[in-house]
């Protein structure tokens, strides 16, 4: 795995000798590209170029004034993708908030996108269980202190996934965390994000865990007949708590 920086965006990168496409891995709210670290030891590396992004203001990517909402962040990623993947076919994997960003990117690259995997991406208002917490705060520092303590409390469960998430949250820029949380909530709407995902013309698959997906979202998936796959026993991060099955499903689909 190599490190690259493009437009002040930090990326973990692994190139394939004869890539079929570029896979862009987009993390969720409070996260970083570390949530996809196992991708770089998966069989995906044999046939695809991999790019795991730290979104501006998350992980080690510095905050950018233009990246305080979903639309601005997607625009910066568009520039990065154009620079690094150029005319290669594109595959997007977006987790949680990253699912909304992934939907926006699919619209920006209609002729290059081969496949979009939304991993517990926001579809309905019920999916905003983390981002909606920002609505109670106006001060970024106060929200950050609240959120850090909330996640730290969850470490008592001993769940290694929460340890990984806590590590990423510690690197977040407080203003970006607050602003992006609010933007994520607004862009999700009642079912706005779900409708936009459902209307995409590219191949797509919604990946979810049966231990975390809200009933409202499950009903939406069924009613709209959205192509989907459930990881039994998984929570919000199937790529971390069901790693082997997750990357095997991605490879099988491709």
> According to CATH, what is the class?
Alpha Beta
Q: How would a textbook summarize the main sheet?
A: 8 strands, mixed
- How far the N terminus sits from the C terminus, by CA atoms, comes to 22 Å
Name of the CATH architecture: 3-Layer(aba) Sandwich
What would the keywords be for this entry?
39% helix; 254 residues; globular; alpha/beta; Rossmann fold; 8-stranded mixed beta sheet
Would you kindly provide a written description of the structure presented here, covering whatever features stand out?
The protein has nine helices and eight strands. It has 254 residues and is an alpha/beta fold. The longest helix is centred in the first third of the chain and has 15 residues, at 70-84. It has helices at 70-84, 97-108, 140-154, 160-169, 174-188, 192-198, 215-223, 238-241, 243-253; strands at residues 2-6, 9-14, 21-26, 48-54, 90-95, 113-119, 203-209, 228-231. The chain has an eight-stranded mixed β-sheet with strand order 1-2-4-3-5-6-7-8, sandwiched between helices. The chain has one domain (2-253): 3-Layer(aba) Sandwich (Rossmann fold), CATH 3.40.50. A hairpin with a 2-residue loop joins strand 1 (2-6) and strand 2. Helix content is 39%, strand content 19%.
Write the layout of secondary structure elements.
Elements: E1 2-6, E2 9-14, E3 21-26, E4 48-54, H1 70-84, E5 90-95, H2 97-108, E6 113-119, H3 140-154, H4 160-169, H5 174-188, H6 192-198, E7 203-209, H7 215-223, E8 228-231, H8 238-241, H9 243-253
Parallel strand pairs: 3-4, 3-5, 5-6, 6-7, 7-8
Antiparallel strand pairs: 1-2, 2-4
Helix pairs in contact: 1-2, 3-4, 3-5
């Amino acid at each position: 795995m190599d490190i690259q920086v493009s437009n002040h965006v930090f990326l973990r990168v692994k190139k394939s000798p004869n890539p079929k496409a570029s896979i862009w891995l987009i993390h969720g709210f409070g996260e970083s590209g570390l949530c996809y670290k196992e991708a770089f030891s998966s069989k995906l590396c044999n046939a695809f170029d991999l790019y795991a992004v730290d979104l501006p203001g998350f992980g080690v990517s510095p905050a950018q004034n233009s990246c305080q909402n979903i639309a601005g962040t997607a625009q910066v990623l568009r520039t990065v993708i154009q620079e690094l993947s150029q005319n290669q076919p594109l595959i997007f994997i977006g987790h949680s908030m990253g699912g909304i960003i992934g939907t926006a990117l699919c619209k920006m690259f209609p002729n290059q996108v081969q496949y979009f995997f939304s991993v517990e991406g926001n579809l309905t208002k019920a999916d905003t269980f983390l981002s909606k917490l920002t609505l109670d705060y106006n001060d970024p520092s106060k929200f950050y202190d609240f959120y850090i303590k909330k996640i730290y409390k969850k470490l008592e469960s001993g769940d290694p996934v929460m340890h990984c998430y806590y590590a990423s949250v510690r690197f977040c820029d407080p203003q970006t965390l607050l602003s992006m949380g609010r933007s994520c909530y607004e862009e999700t709407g009642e079912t706005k994000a779900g409708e936009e995902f459902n209307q995409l013309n590219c191949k797509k698959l919604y990946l979810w865990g049966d231990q975390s997906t809200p009933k409202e979202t499950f009903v939406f998936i069924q009613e709209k007949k959205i192509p989907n796959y459930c990881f039994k026993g998984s929570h919000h991060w199937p790529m971390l708590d069901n790693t082997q099955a997750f990357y095997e499903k991605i490879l099988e689909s491709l």
